[in-house]
Amino acid sequence: MINAVQSLAQGVFTSIPSPDISYIDLGPLRIHFYALCIITGIIVAVLMTNHRLTKRGAEPWVVIDIALLAVPLAIITARVYHVVTHWGFYFGEGANPLSALYIWEGGIAIYGALIGGAVGAWLGCRWTGIRFWSFADALAPGLLLAQAIGRFGNWFNQELFGLPTDLPWGLEIDPENPAFPPGLAPDTLFHPTFLYEVIWNALGVLVLLWAGRRLRLQWGRLFALYLIWYSAGRIVWESIRIDPSEIFLGLRTNVWAAIAGVVVGIVILVVQRRRHTGDEASPYVPGREWHPEGSVQSQDTDDFVDVSEPPTAEVGEGTATSAATK
């Protein structure tokens, strides 16, 4: 009995179990937890970006107008990127090409999402008058947090895990799962790469919030730091993953993408630091500024004056009260 209890305790405390289910059925509607994680991440990113952009002086919820273009394009290009880099899954011998459309089964590539999302965000910023780099900086912490939340979808799907390990936090994978590597013992544990990325991204959110406030990173420099931080971690996690992937020059495609992410981040950081030495005056491009209702901008300053109430004269300032207002 004691041995049984010890074995149970060892199984509970020296490994991470994977969920037994990845979806729930509500009548005829099937809801996948993977999709719920992605949707939750999007909502969190929108809320955080709205808060940060509004504090800079943008119109409340203008982020929705930008997200209407950025989010759909991000999802589409994320799926396309995944399918292209895992071509054999969908168009190889014995594969079902229609499964390329089964996005609920997993397979959304972050770097594909960044490409499509950047195009959509640029179009949305042109539409609303928001500076693209102001939006990108406001988005960066929320985007990283959204990616951390989205990784739990991989946990529910029991996918994208790492090499076998005997570490106490090894991840349990159902041996019947199609992603379980053939030839390994059924009780083999794997590196929980989803958890590594969750922790790295959550820590990165704190770093970005601190750096944005303390170092006043603007003009896209905070987004550049996001690219460097996320991509540096992704190089490590991607290098220990064992799911099939296209290989170029000995490296997985996503490792190359992560390296490119670091390089692009450094380039943005250097170029924008040289181009812009001062603070952003406004999150809007000149001539597209939003003025809160009931306010006008002073001709001599950048301050807004509330004109919703008539000015009142103080006694002793040499002003008279109109008879009409007595």
Strand content: 5-15%
Query: What is the molecular shape?
Result: globular
Strand order, largest beta sheet: 1-4-5
Largest sheet: 3 strands, mixed
Helix/strand/pairing class, anyone?
Answer: mainly alpha
Please compute the radius of gyration using only Cα atoms: 25 Å
The total number of structural domains is: 1
Q: Determine the N-to-C terminus distance.
A: 92 Å
Low-confidence runs: 1-11, 297-326
Oligomer: single chain
H/E element sequence: HEEEHHHHHEEHHEEHEE
User: Would you count the extended β strands for me?
Assistant: 9
Mean pLDDT: 85
EC number: 2.5.1.145
InterPro entries: Lgt (IPR001640)
Membrane topology: Multi-pass membrane protein
Transmembrane segments: 31-49, 61-81, 101-125, 132-150, 194-212, 219-237, 249-271
Q: Would you kindly provide a written description of the structure presented here, covering whatever features stand out?
A:
- This protein has helices at residues 2-13, 33-55, 62-85, 87-91, 110-128, 132-157, 193-214, 221-240, 253-275, and strands at 15-16, 23-26, 29-32, 170-172, 189-190, 247-248, 251-252, 295-297, 304-306.
- α7 (193-214) packs antiparallel against α8 and α8 packs antiparallel against α9 (253-275).
- A hairpin with a 2-residue loop joins β2 (23-26) and β3.
- It has 326 residues and is mainly alpha-helical.
- The protein has one domain (30-275).
- The strands form four sheets. Strands 1-4-5 form a three-stranded mixed β-sheet. A two-stranded antiparallel sheet has the order 2-3. A two-stranded antiparallel sheet has the order 6-7.
- Mean pLDDT is 85; it is low at 1-11 and 297-326.
